[in-house]
């Protein structure tokens, strides 16, 4: 385990004001396995000092153990403990602000009644004007039913809200896109589809999030067929884009090509199936997907429709066995499943210069430290290891590009363009085993993705307007 800001706290303590007092406190934190962060002096009293001490822990249980260790130190009183992650969420993480001043009667008469009626009439007469005269041109709905949230599973729409708010923050920070969390109190695909259909006029795109498989496939398909704005299930397509980008760079480093490598995957849910389809679109020909029952192969009993279709289009040799067994001679492992899905022994049987993407969160399919030196490139979904495969590299730029050209959809060509753009942000002389994935804070990524997606949309006919086209103002000659 690694100390993480996700499990951090600010402990306000009253410490006796004499030499060595703080050293005992620091020693207790260290002995409990905590990482000491910022230390702030709040105030000095007659015989004591009040300090705020920031600590990082491995997990929630560890956090409580550290606090208990601090409480046990002689001469130290714990005044209160603030969980820094919960503090960040107080009152929510987003807000709405007006883009225009509202200071005079004239401002009010133009922004609202009576002036707004002229704008409404202009849109009613020419519906395309909604793109220029409302927030639609830069707004995405982040829609979830809370059935597959992170690794927490079905925690409902209320539990999903902090995640969807976080998604909205990332949209704005990295893509300049205004996003609204919409968490639905229903699991019925018909109700979800109909709800999104009736709210769609207000949005330029729909980002589906954390909806469990296999319902997510049907919901996305029906919405893509019925709406004239992009519908993008990020758990599928965002993951697939970043996995492909990372794999292209890893293959570039080890001198192999996507067309010729043998790929074994674990996890055949929404993300796993989308990753496979995207890799196939990029030229991959040898992929075997595995679930908890082993390889998906043609004729395997008990497969649902989605897995049966998957088996028909993968596993060219119709192999059977566990993922660990199938790793023998494989060039690439891609994990989108659970901890322990493969073993160190399985990785040892892989081909030379092997690539392992173990993306289960928070605990990867195989311990990254245990396979150092066995795989040449190792990537995970965690921020505390090199090569974090994170969807934030994709979706802000994808939607930015789609909105810029008012795309009707996000098609396979746009997704491939996004992946190649992400990969290209790492130059040949920068590429290394611990740097095949750009940092999520690399500000060059989202603009590069946006430009590539917009260009691909123009090329495939998904775009309604050209990039950089001038915006007309309704009502003026």
Please write out the topology:
Blueprint: E1 4-16, H1 21-31, E2 35-44, E3 48-57, H2 60-71, E4 76-83, H3 84-89, H4 105-111, H5 116-125, H6 130-133, E5 139-144, H7 156-175, E6 178-183, H8 189-199, E7 205-208, H9 215-226, E8 231-233, H10 234-254, E9 262-266, H11 270-281, E10 286-291, E11 294-295, H12 305-313, H13 323-326, E12 332-335, H14 344-348, E13 355-358, E14 377-380, H15 395-404, H16 412-424, H17 445-460
Helix pairs in contact: 7-15, 8-9, 10-11, 10-16, 15-17, 16-17
Work out the helix count.
Answer: 17
Helix content: 25-40%
Strand order of the largest sheet: 11-10-9-12-13-14
Radius of gyration, whole Å:
26 Å
Question: What key phrases describe this protein's structure?
Answer:
477 residues; 6-stranded mixed β-sheet; 4-stranded antiparallel β-sheet; alpha/beta
Provide a short characterization of the protein structure.
With 477 residues, the protein is of the alpha/beta class. Helix content is 38%, strand content 18%. The chain has 17 helices and 14 strands.
What does this structure look like?
This protein is α/β, with parallel strands linked by helices and 477 residues long. It has helices at 21-31, 60-71, 84-89, 105-111, 116-125, 130-133, 156-175, 189-199, 215-226, 234-254, 270-281, 305-313, 323-326, 344-348, 395-404, 412-424, 445-460; strands spanning 4-16, 35-44, 48-57, 76-83, 139-144, 178-183, 205-208, 231-233, 262-266, 286-291, 294-295, 332-335, 355-358, 377-380. It has a six-stranded mixed beta sheet with strand order 11-10-9-12-13-14, with helices on one face. A four-stranded antiparallel beta sheet has the order 2-3-1-4. Strands 6-5-7-8 form a four-stranded parallel beta sheet, sandwiched between helices. Helix 7 links the parallel strand 5 (139-144) and strand 6 (178-183).
